[in-house]
Amino acid sequence: MGNCNKCGKDCNEIKINQFDHSFHLGNVSEGCKRCIKGEKLVLFITGKCAQQCYYCPVSEHKFGHDKIFADEWEIEDNEQGWKNLVKEVKLINAKGAGITGGDPLCVLERTCKYIKRMKEQFGKDFHVHLYTPLKLINKEVLVKLNESGLDEIRFHPDLDDDKLWDKLLLAKDFVWDIGIEIPCVPGKEFEIKKLIDFVAEHDIIKFFNLNELERSDTSVEHYSLPNDQFPTIDQISYAIQGSKELAELFVNHVNEKNYDFTIYFCTAKLKDGTQLTNRLKRRAKSLAKLPYNKLTDEGTLIKGVIYLEELKPGFDYKEKLVQLSSEYKGKLLEKLNEQKDLIEKTIKRTNQIFIDEKKFRLLCSLKILEKNVKKIKKINLIPAIVEEMPTEDAMELEIEFL
Length: 402
Fold this sequence. Notes:
Strand order of the largest sheet: 1-2-11-10-9-8-7-6-3-4-5
Order of helices and strands: EEHEEEHEHEHEEHEHEHEEHHEEHHEE
CATH class of the largest domain: Alpha Beta
Oligomer: single chain
């Protein structure tokens, strides 16, 4: 590997993370460093994609649909959507963003617009990386991406067709970090090694990321990872058998060849147990500043909740919320305002009850709730202690009715 261009030391050593079992040879990319800490906004810019990979995990609710998500928050491509994105960045105290899809190049102008706006809003040190297959890559596209301020581009070449691999050479004409990121698919040892040797021969990349292959619950038509060919490592994990072992071969191959780029294996445990958890904990820490939220050690939120009888959580709760008409939502908000005033008058405390306009319920601290259970029930409302994820949809983990 030679001397590291950052620390000046010899980095020819395979480093293994004992917690999540990821490993790398060389220096992990800047985008990955921030992502692991939970410092990156995940910007799903569109579900459109010109390539249909049989292992693509994107859900049927996103793939093929022109939707935008800032982390778990679906946003519109307008000023209100931008304000929501900014809010999400602030909630997780993001130091950068990773743009994904689908293929972000299917909506190139939108992608470039968001890169520019994020750089303008959050500063030049706000690190932005992007994932894309090669189908839509050309010189003009790369010029636009580079001029928009993109810091790091990660290519996802088709392993079964090397006709487009030469497009990777075009990226060398620009000042940014270039990488490859693909799943480590058992049975594709020859193809992946061929790609590794290709990028090494042409001195294209700074890093080569291998992701542990995972099973997905998606029901898109092109998804195909048969259980008999791709069994998981155990009954709990979604990780596929043999992916990690194959990655070890490639890391050793890069080491033996002394190729001058980093190779990194990212495990399913790292993505879910570290990266996602860290991001959600950052969000939870921000939300815990609200008077009705209590932060747990696991990074979830516990709050006092007061439900209307007609929207008491049950098996069809989520469906009920989705199907509410605009007219009925207006009536519910009126009723919640009335009940808020009534509760505060009953408990003789003002500005202690808050309206949740997304789930049409009332919120308060655990202390206020537990102290006034009987009074709340007396006016035909339903008190509960709720533990939720700190995501925008506030997914319920546990509800304890009092």
